[in-house]
Amino acid sequence: MDMAIETFNLTKKYGAKVGCAEICLRVPRGQIFGFLGPNGAGKSTLVKMLVGLLFPTSGKAILLGRALGDIEVRKKIGFLPENFRYHDWLTGQQLLEFHASLYKLGGTAKKRRVDEVLDLVGLAGKEKQKVQTYSKGMRQRVGLACALLPDPDLLFLDEPTSALDPIGRKDVREILVTIKALGKTIFLNSHLLSEVEMICDAVAFIRQGKIIRQGLLEDLRTGDIQVEMKIGGLTPALTAALASLARSIEIEDDLVRIRVKQDEDIPRLAALVVTGGGFLFEMNRKRSTLEEMFIRTTGGGEEIC
Amino acid sequence: MLTMMGITFREGLNRKVMLISLVLAVIFLGLYGTGVHYAGQSFNEHPNPMLAAVVYPQLLSFGLYFGGFIVSFLAIFSAVGAISAEIETGIIQAVITKPIRRRDYVLGKFLGLGLFLALYAALFFIVIAMIINIKTGLVLDGQWRALGLFALQPVVLLAITLFGSVVLPTIANGVVMFMLYAVAVIGGMVEQIGWLIGNTGLQQAGIVTSLVMPVDSLYRKIVHLLMNPTNNPLGALQQMGPFGSMAEPSVWMVLYALSYVMIFTGLAAYAFGRKDI
Ligand SMILES: Nc1ncnc2c1ncn2[C@@H]1O[C@H](COP(=O)(O)OP(=O)(O)OP(=O)(O)O)[C@@H](O)[C@H]1O
Ligand SMILES: [Mg+2]
């Protein structure tokens, strides 16, 4: 498959401190890829290396078929930084024209594209205002507009909706889905898991600079199924039998929460309860949400040092 | 690179520093013009060609000296955070991730600011030269070369300040550059005193500082160009005092200043090329 991003043992150290370590990622073209992790995990560090702000300590990466550091390929890469600060003494339109020139757009193509992205991010009518006078959310929108200027094949967004209201977030989601439909690739750093869940095809979890899990969202979900059962007459023998099938088990009075690997384990659990002499009052399959997955895989705040 | 140059130039025009330096320039030139005007008037009323031949050039060098001061301040102020402040605010992040080479970013900054400063300095020089010419009738030799050197002064400061802006935070850079500039100014005076009293130690100290920061020797060269002492018996007298130039810096000094500009701009580009942002 044609990859938009491939990294090989990409590592960044800040002195002795690890920013991110031995990152190996493969993001196929046409995907929305979510890069998730707690604060300070190294998400921005990775993105900054990929867009050329930081130089890797070791390892390499390939973007759209070109080695890291290639200048030409950047004509097709958009980037919205985490702190989205811009030349705020320019008006929105002047700012976008400046960034369009940096992308080597010119003449009528520039004008047209500036108008298009202004429209796309919902800032049409505000372009004559100085960026200084924009609200935080408007600034983030203008930043997104800058990133969209070259009609990028690969778009890096570092927390693109951190300053947006719910409607703004929905707008951005829609923009991203539209772009994806055009075959573009989006690399998304985010904390907002419910959003990621809505639009991402694949995700990777990073923690303390290391990738601890990655895959298609579907696969990650099915890799882990939670079943909640209400069981009467629970005996230690029955519990042990259930535990032998489960990846994890939690018991609260008559409520049993079990995690299993595959769908086929669900009827087996039911059979165990019945043959073990228990009374099965209720049985629910829970879809694992990304948030649970996040908390579980990234260790729920507990530190491993 | 042209885009960067354009935005830098526009930014220069936009900044408060520009406004302040313009106001300063107007105040300074206004006072200076008034001073020269009255000096000229009193000589017209009580003609004394001997004294005038000494005082007029002194007035000119005084104007150029403090004019150079203002231009140099503007150079340091406008370049001190040219790159570091963009890194500190984060503005740079969306800029250098574009299809633009890092060295073009630095060169664009250098050319944009350089053009801006050189124009400002040239304007300053022309106004001073005009005031002197109209009010005192003094005819200046080598005006155009002097103008070039006067415009080169802020560019020399710009080059090293830009380099500082890559390797140092804004505040630290400001402190270092003002210290360097002070060293050049004091070194120039020390050297002047050295020639006056014939002390080679002081002369050498002056030469060393002008190698560290050649701005002051450019000024001394300008004074020489404008008031060529060889065809003027009063030359030696004109060149006395802190604003004069008893020993003419050689043409090598000018070449040195030019290479200084190129070396520090090159270093800035090189250091920025491998900097983590
Ligand atoms: N310039 C720097 N110098 C030293 N350490 C740094 C620097 N930048 C980041 N770090 C460290 O690298 C680690 C990763 O930081 P990074 O900014 O990549 O985290 P993040 O995942 O983006 O976090 P957040 O969710 O808060 O944005 C952190 O421990 C941080 O302290
Ligand atoms: Mg971050």
Characterise the protein shown here.
The complex is a heterodimer of chains A (305) and B (277). By secondary structure, chain A is α/β, with parallel strands linked by helices. Chain A has two domains: 30-52 and 67-220, P-loop containing nucleotide triphosphate hydrolases (Rossmann fold, 3-Layer(aba) Sandwich); 226-287, Alpha-Beta Plaits (2-Layer Sandwich). Chain A has helices at 43-51, 92-102, 107-120, 136-148, 166-181, 193-199, 217-222, 236-245, 265-275, 290-297, and strands spanning 3-14, 17-23, 26-28, 32-36, 58-63, 66-67, 77-80, 154-158, 185-190, 202-207, 210-216, 225-232, 248-252, 255-260, 279-286. In chain A, strands 7-8-9-4-10-11 form a six-stranded mixed beta sheet, sandwiched between helices. In chain A, strands 1, 2, 3, 5 and 6 form a five-stranded antiparallel beta sheet that branches. The two termini of chain A are 37 Å apart. The relative contact order of chain A is 0.13. Chain B has 277 residues and is an all-alpha fold. Chain B has one domain (2-273). The radius of gyration of chain B is 20 Å and the shape is globular. In chain B, helix 1 crosses helix 6 (102-136). Chain A binds chain B through residues 48, 51-55, 71-72, 74-75, 77, 79-81, 83-87, 89, 98-99, 101-104, 143, 146-147, and chain B through 3, 6-7, 11, 14, 89-91, 93-101, 274, 276-277. Bound molecules: adenosine-5'-triphosphate and magnesium ion. Residues 14, 17, 19, 37, 39-45, 82 of chain A line the site of adenosine-5'-triphosphate.
